[in-house]
Amino acid sequence: xxxxxxxxxxxxxxxxxxxxxxxxxxAEPQSVPLLTDVRxxxxxxxxxQVVDGAGVPSADATVTVAFGNQPVAETQTDSKGxxxxxxxxxxxxxxxxxxxxxxxxxxxxxxxPPKAGPRVLLVENQEVVRGKSCAQHKFAHALxxxxxxxxxxxxxxxxxxxxxxxxxxxxx
Length: 172
Description:
172 residues; alpha/beta; 26% helix; Immunoglobulin-like
């Protein structure tokens, strides 16, 4: 009888885990494209700045803007690392340096959502590190595994039931 209750509890936990996985709640890291929303100024003007990893402006850096696979503009940064590109339209554009590229969703004046910024900030030679997953640490990664957590919960329920010493729930 006690084993049957433990199995029902385990089956319930299994159903919950399956339900969560169907909702997209997973312990596996998800790849999310990094897309920056930027408001264009009047005349389709895109402004921005290029800095190095320490935040120092990068003078004379080449910035290329592409729409689809076609370059639409190229410019150089000034002594403050700032640049401007005119004549752009809304849509997803690649804003590239020699050392990397940023995907930007450009918005025509008056159409941008509140979270859209007024300019692009590009960091040269930036190593992208996203903090969503603890995969670098094996112990932390193991603890994020829903199957392991379910097993621990099942054992935590089953052991007290097994150690109950034959007493029933009704107290007889």
